[in-house]
Amino acid sequence: MIANPDTAHSHPAAPDAPSARELITARGGRVTRTRVAVLDVLRSAPRPLNHDQIAAELEAAGEQHDRVTLYRALDWLVEQGIATRVAGSDRAWKFELVRDTGHRHAHFHCQRCGRVLCLDEVEPALAGALPAGFRLEQAELVLHGACADCTAPPPTP
Amino acid sequence: MIANPDTAHSHPAAPDAPSARELITARGGRVTRTRVAVLDVLRSAPRPLNHDQIAAELEAAGEQHDRVTLYRALDWLVEQGIATRVAGSDRAWKFELVRDTGHRHAHFHCQRCGRVLCLDEVEPALAGALPAGFRLEQAELVLHGACADCTAPPPTP
DNA sequence: TCATTTGTGCAACATTGTAGCATTTGCGTG
DNA sequence: CACGCAAATGCTACAATGTTGCACAAATGA
């Protein structure tokens, strides 16, 4: 069961995960400043980030990257199956690393605090609920509502 | 069980449904050309439509409406609970009439044929799959994959 | 080192939606 | 029916989020 949103999505950088360089060269891509930087940001992100947030992270790290180049790097990562797009409530895509192929997880968007959390338990239930003949393919799936933190009554002051 | 997408979403205009005028005046809104026209389009639409599609329908019917006015009419409908927003694969919202309050349904977006279908059976399963403390609120929920038509092998020629 | 091909960076454009504001219109009242 | 006023409309601008085209730079293999 998932109660605390901050631990609900404990993805940040498994120690044995392949390096950015490895991820890139494995698909025959060139190892460029932007791709490495974006990968590093995504790898240490606790939840899906949109283009703006990624750019902000990069700037915080003292890196300057062109807006278009960022879009293209992200597009490439998605195309290569390294990252996925997640639809948010606004019309901006969020991006997230694909952790292990074969396991898809859904996202929950809290309409109170705006956070996007990852839910590992939902997909099996969904697969059973879909009509026969339908196939659930994409991890891009977002539920909306209120998360545990926001439904909980405030602590007595 | 839902097998045929064309019947899966059999919403078009129940004969006893309230008229556009009734729907509008019931919330204290003014009955204007645009609201009535938009409601009529949504009422006869077999699936959620985005702003562009609605405008196209109106033009096909010989009606000319301002882009902004359309947005505002749609916003008002959503605000009044008459319509809901559905997120699509592009960043444009789709709109759909709320049929009966109290019953929320999810949407399935087929990535082959691009159709958005409505699934009545999914929500109960979802509610059980969410972690404790989480509340599923919004009907705006889209699953992605392939629908029955598109997963089925082509008929032997 | 050199050539080739892949990415980058810039500027311009496209789509989707919002904001401000003057004008028109629906509709209750006299 | 005429009036008056709030509610909607219809501009025009503007904002956010991507995309496209093209010249230039840089990664990689020979």
UniProtKB/TrEMBL annotation, chains A, B:
Zn(2+) binds at C110, C113, C147, C150. Its cofactor is Zn(2+). It holds the Pfam family FUR. InterPro entries: FUR, Fur_C, WH-like_DNA-bd_sf, WH_DNA-bd_sf. It comes from the Bacteria. Coiled coil: none annotated. GO terms for biological process: negative regulation of DNA-templated transcription; regulation of secondary metabolite biosynthetic process. GO terms for molecular function: DNA-binding transcription factor activity; transcription cis-regulatory region binding; zinc ion binding. Binds 1 zinc ion per subunit. Belongs to the Fur family. This is Transcriptional repressor.
